[in-house]
Amino acid sequence: MAKDGLTSVIIELNQRVPHSEAATDEDALKYHLKDIISDDSAETKIWAGGQATLTKIPDVPAYTLFATQPNLVKTKKNPEDFTGILLVLVRLENVQSDVLVSVNVPHVPGEYDETKIDLPAQKVGGLLEAAGTIRQKVLESFEVRNWSIFGEEGE
User: 140: Cβ–Cβ under 8 A, 6 or more apart, which residues?
Assistant: First the structure.
């Protein structure tokens, strides 16, 4: 990981995206992505995504997505080349909620080996490989232990 600890993991409990906003679960994931990226999303690129399985609750729909967003304005305070975004969306229809887990990986010059990254060739480099491990651990360990956090009894 980055020596300055720039990678972050964010877990959001959201109201379920309704079918009027997203016809499919994959569209709901893209809806959430648009909500968390900057306003200029034209430069954001989705590299991979699809259905996933939650080891502890395999009947609950889950989806993953990997996208990158270039830093369009570089400053001393914000010098990264791009940010890798690895998402997990868990659709909890019984409580009308979406759980979104985002692993954000800023790539700052000098903090990663640019020669190890070729995204079109699926070479993601060490930082994104580590983030992929985090995302996999989320898929393996995610469960809801207390349904009352959603304001309902749930399952």
Answer: 55, 56
Q: How many CA atoms lie within 13 A of 82 on its CB side?
A: 16
pTM of the model: 0.85
Measured CA to CA, the distance from residue 91 to residue 99 in angstroms comes to 7
Whether the CB-CB separation of 116 and 125 falls below 8 Å is answered with: yes
Distance CA 86, CA 105 (A): 8
Range of the domain at 45: 8-142
Letter for the amino acid at 35? D
Domain containing residue 49: CATH number: 3.40.1000.10
Total structural domains within the chain: 1
For the stretch 57-82, pLDDT in tens is 999 999 999 999 887 555 555 556 88
| CA distance linking residue 9 with residue 68, whole number of Å | 15
